[in-house]
Amino acid sequence: MPLMTLRDVLEPAVPQRYAVGSFNVTNHDFVEGVLAAAEETGTPVILSVAEVHFRYLDLGRFVPYLKQRIAQSPVPVVLHLDHGTKKETLVKAIHWGFSSVMFDGSTLEWDDNIAQTRELADLAHMAGVSIEAELGHVAGGEGDFEGGSEVDTGRYTDPEQAAEFVHLTGVDALAVAVGTVHGPYRQTPELDLPRLAAIRQNTTVPLVLHGGSGLTEADFQAAIARGINKVNFYTENALLAVEAVKEALAAGRPMTYPDLTAVGRGAITANTKRQIAVFGTQPM
């Protein structure tokens, strides 16, 4: 199936109140694990490659594989750049053939975030690519598994600013800060649901929840009921794959490297299927 954009897969999610999972992938087994879940459930999926994970990849070889594999998939798939922090990264992603990009200007001042996001939105739209941006700041870092992170309530998304930000930048989706963090949580997450509901009331674009790993099913359902349409998810899949490999090794039977990667891939598929069900993702 041809590559889809965020606009393609998220537009029906807004009125129907469901979310589509955006699953970060860092190698071929991660890709196959996620796509197996989407294909078995017949639902759309967003394959994300985070800028911070570029260190794991030879992108010149990995991206062509991704595009070929997506073209062979029977379900709608978005190829998304996650947390691009530099213009050059977004330009490269568009050149490589990503159908969607995220510019993360959440650490910038208001005026700078708007100006840079607007410039990159224009660039992406000229190339037929969708763009996501972030207002407020979701704490923590992708791939930071030591110690965990805690929320910064002072940097939550302002509902009134959200509407103005979307209007001034022209983004296709907005990532919001309402109580989640990237990577493991240092304490039990507590979502600011009234804030999220107010953001939804003020904006019409799909809303994005980063830091999905560590939330409960009830958390997800409450967030989706109040307007979340895209959920970013990585840490839990990465850790569950390791635990599955450890359990397989502890069983004591002879195993080869391909056996271990198959075990990890199977864990990713099983958990991704669970998350798709929790998100209520609908076939397209």
Structure notes:
By secondary structure, the chain is of the alpha/beta class. The protein has a single domain, classed as TIM Barrel (Alpha-Beta Barrel), CATH 3.20.20. Helices cover 47% and strands 15% of the residues. The chain has helices spanning 6-10, 13-16, 28-41, 59-72, 87-96, 110-126, 159-169, 193-202, 217-225, 235-250, 257-279; strands at 20-24, 45-50, 77-84, 100-103, 130-135, 173-176, 207-209, 228-233. It has an eight-stranded parallel beta barrel, surrounded by eight helices. Strand 1 (20-24), helix 3 (28-41) and strand 2 (45-50) form a beta-alpha-beta unit. Helix 10 (235-250) packs across helix 11. The longest helix is centred in the last third of the chain and has 23 residues, at 257-279. The chain is globular, with a radius of gyration of 18 Å. The two termini are 12 Å apart. The mean pLDDT is 92.
